[in-house]
Amino acid sequence: MCYGYPSRRALLAAGLGLGAGAFVAASPAAAATPPHHRHKERVPPGQISIQLWTVRDDLAQNYDTTLAYLAETGYPKVELALGYFGRTAQQLREFLDGLGLEASSSHDGISADDAALDTKIQNALTLGQTYMVVPYLASDSLDEWKGWAERMNVEARAARSAGLRYGYHNHAHEFTTDLGGGVTPWHVLTKELDPRLVHLEIDIYWAVTGGVGRGVRDPVKFAIDVIRRAPQRVLQYHVKDRHLDGDMADLGTGTIDFRRVFDAHRVREYIVENDTPDVTPRRTSEVGYRYLRKLRF
Question: For 24, phi and psi rounded to 5 degrees?
């Protein structure tokens, strides 16, 4: 999903909340070495993860080698997607333990029934997860969004009883779809999801893109407002950059001011993701890890 921008670079910088000179550092070198100003804090290394959807093509070719590479790069955690590639949850846990990787989170759809929910929870416990996250829902129906929120509350209650945290991951359409009378899916979710049970995994790229789609002057501020105003706790970020044309970018090579977001709200997991790696999935994973390790905010 791409949205256009005005052509003047000053307007581009202002619109994304980047300020003058933002385009000087938008290069692969900047991704590897974010500029050091007065900022002193960094993302704690134990809170860095990667969403495996980023390396899905490599996983399909050689799952074991790809996970070993992520461990060698320095990632302590991964967020699971796409299943277990022929392993049981126990077998995958043993393999990840051998690599020194933790599957701290996973993307799982809403379960079809209570039996499927129980299986999902038991697998998450076997893998040693902290989080389980619903990755995507889409509809133009207000009633359907309300029904999903009700079901997620049920699942979240079961997850909490098992010692797991249950969350929802956004895209852009939650902010831009009109369900009638100006009500959006985000209005429904933040009103209906029980903040005692459900947390949010905010995808920064998609929140910024949602702001662009709504025509706001400062899409990064829009994303920050989304984070600050939600009754639910924001415990995880998907950290994904954005090119000027709206396409996804490797971290530090795009236009999003992550310092500004991280200064506004800190989370427990900073999860690297890029659905469309700029060069190769491995390169994206390397650039993302180095960027988060060196960024000061």
Answer: -65, -35
Angle at 136 between CA 133 and CA 140, to 5 degrees: 140
Classified as helix, coil or strand, 116 is helix
The token pair that represents 275 in the structure block = 């659905």
3-state secondary structure of 153: helix
Written as six digits, the tokens of 278 are: 């700029």
Residue whose structure tokens are 């392993």: 87
User: Judging by DSSP bridges, how do beta strands 241-242 and 248-249 pair with one another?
Assistant: antiparallel
> Dihedral angle at the C-alpha atoms of 174, 175, 180, 181, nearest 10 degrees?
150
The rounded Cα 101 to chain-centroid distance in angstroms is: 19
Q: Per the structure block, which two tokens stand in for 148?
A: 């999903």
Determine how many CB atoms are found less than 10 A away from the CB of residue 257.
17
Spatial neighbors of 106 by CB under 8 A, at least 6 apart, are 79, 80, 81, 124, 127, 129, 131, 132, 133
Contact (Cβ atoms closer than 8 angstroms) between residue 229 and residue 262: no
CA distance 252 to 240: 9
* Torsion region of 83: left, alpha or beta (phi above 0 gives left; psi -120 to 50 gives alpha): left
**Which pLDDT value is given to residue 39?**
61
The per-residue pLDDT for range 158-187, each reduced to its tens digit, is 999 999 999 999 999 999 999 999 999 999
Q: What CA–CA distance (Å, rounded) separates 202 from 236?
A: 6
Condensed to tens digits (0 to 9), the pLDDT of residues 193-250 reads: 999 999 999 999 999 999 999 999 999 999 999 999 999 999 999 999 999 999 999 9
Query: Vertex 130, ends 124 and 132: CA angle to 5°?
Result: 60
pTM above 0.85, yes or no: yes
